[in-house]
Amino acid sequence: MPKKATSPKKATSPKKATSRAAARPRRTSQTTRPRGSVPREKLPRSAPPVRFESQKHIEGVRAALKRADYIRGVAASTKAHPRPLAAEVQDTHPLIRMFFYGLAISEDDARPALEPLALEDWAGGNLIALKGGRAVPLVRIEPYSGLLVATDIEWSSPQKAAPDAVMGLTGSSLWLANLTIRRQSRLTLDLGTGGGIQAMLASSHSERVIAVDANARALDFARFNAQLNGISNIEFIEGEWFEPVEGVKFDLIVSNPPFVISPDFQILCRDNPMDGDDLIQSLVRAMPGYLNDGGYGQIFGDWAQLTGELWAGHPAKWVAQTGCDAWVLRGKVKDAADYAKYYIGDLDAAEFKKANRKWLAYLERHRIERVIDGMITMRRSSGRSNWFRADEFPRRLRSGVGTAIERGFGHRDFLERTDDKSLLDEHVRPSPHLRVEARLEPNAAGWDLKRAQLILTEGMSYSARIDGALARAVLNCGRKRCVRDLLNDVASTRGQSAKDLAPGFLASVRQLIANGMLWPVSLDESDQAVGD
Fold first, then answer.
1. pLDDT > 90? residue 444
2. What is the distance between the alpha carbons of residues 240 and 248, in angstroms, rounded to a whole number?
3. What DSSP element (H or E) covers 465?
4. Which ranges in the chain are annotated with CATH 3.90.930?
5. Which DSSP state fits 251?
6. For the residues of 158-215, what is the DSSP string, one character each?
7. Between 188 and 23, whose confidence is greater?
């Protein structure tokens, strides 16, 4: 869920640009403005966005940050001071104090740190303000995956942020970044780009990226960020959701929309402008129409669990009859009271009571018992029946999650087309990322494998506890022995008939394949295989 980073307490390589005329999708008269949204032109504007007229100025900002060793300096500082007081970061570089920790510094300290540009150049680009002999930061610059991302300092609190504030790197931003399928894409869409982090990450594996946002101020930040990072294959378009790309098909769509289920529409980047979770629903239902066959759409957000419904009830309804296979992954679950408290923020007792009453009445009116956050991944797969899968996130996510999700789609396809009789003749092998922790007990012959825990060390780090007989099957599987051979081994170890054991054994094998612990060998030899 979006939550702003805490400030200290006081005691790419460039790519060839596509011509704008060729890149811009055609516009239509069709409108996709969400029901109930406040017209953006009527919202009060905040301070002007970051904007430089000259490439020379962008290069000057880049040079100053590089000279400060900004990315490594931030990493070192946050490691040394996880929850810093202002006094604890006084020894960091002036640019880190200003643009990461949000601290004003004297003009005398700022002047040499900001070279080769003058103080007035930084102020003219709206990165700083000069007040009373001090340089005051107006933006926060956060490093992520080798990129630098400038956004507003204040964006999450209705009491402090302007309605058109640009969101920083939040938990939901990083979840989506980590979970995105990073295969090569001819054309990628970042829907609701904000400061542009998803578009910039996608630029490295996409020929072209189109980034859409209805907030013109956010697009100015995103353009600045792309220029700052030397990325030139992104086109930024102002517009409402899919309206600017009507008629265009994509290999990949990613979206981290404003998803907070709130009774008020106060902050563009945070609050869902439609009733309940209707915005997420509308985007999920519309997304398949903009995907090429085999293309993926991934959206991270909140959805409602209504009284008497399952947690995946809403996504299951949304993706039905869309021509897409879908995998829903559940993150945090908050009941209505905790969800309201989380987003109301710090208010005095009287104001909190008033706001809390309003939030709870709104959630109760919509029969919302709990709110789920998570990822919905869809793959356009027309011409056949589609499948739906819903799981909780594993306790840990490691590198390569996007690849694991793509492989998960391939594994589910395999399971859908392979009945139990056929599965017996298949060969499976352990994932190269599988670790087996075995419990051995001594016996007369030596050691007896009693039980084991399987743990994935890459991607979706699922784990499973299995008995010793099944553990031996996992250790002995491979190209030379089919699943039927493994079943016979387990039956012999347990002293049961293979026929009686088969249903439970095959169910276990299917679960291990679904979770990526066992890989069907046939996928390695087909064009559905995903790179290891």
1. no
2. 15
3. strand 463-467
4. 413-524
5. E
6. TTTS-TTPPP-S-HHHHHHHHHS--S-EEEEEEET-TTSHHHHHHHTTEEEEEEEES-
7. 188
- Give the residue among 169, 243, 233, 185 at the shortest CA–CA distance from 213: 243
Superfamily of domain 146-393: Vaccinia Virus protein VP39 (3.40.50.150)
Which residues partner with 253 through β-bridges? 189, 297
Calculate the dihedral angle through the C-alpha atoms of 266, 270, 273, 278, rounding to the nearest 10 degrees: -150
Residues in CB range of 110: below 8 A, 6 or more apart? 94, 98, 119, 128, 135
Pairing between strand 185-191 and 206-213?
parallel
- Is the distance from CB of 177 to CB of 144 less than 8 angstroms? yes
- Tell me how far apart the alpha carbons of residues 128 and 122 are, in angstroms, rounded to a whole number: 6
- Cβ–Cβ contacts within 10 Å for residue 257, how many? 21
Please give the structure tokens belonging to residue 497: 């008939």
Q: Please tell me what DSSP assigns to residue 377.
A: E
CATH of 413-524, one of 3.90.930, 3.40.50, 3.30.420, 1.20.120: 3.90.930
3-state helix, strand, coil split of the chain in percent (to 5) is: 35, 25, 40
| Confidence at residue 276, expressed as pLDDT on a 0 to 100 scale | 87
| Radius of gyration from C-alpha coordinates of the chain | 26
- Bridge partners, residue 106, by sequence: 134
Q: Looking at mean pLDDT, say which of 113-117, 274-278, 435-439, 489-493 comes out highest.
A: 113-117
**Strands laid side by side in the 368-380 sheet:** 234-238, 206-213, 185-191, 250-255, 291-306, 368-380, 324-335, 388-392
Task: Look at residue 443 in the predicted model and tell me its pLDDT.
Answer: 78
In degrees to the nearest 10, what's the CA dihedral of 118, 144, 155, 157?
-130
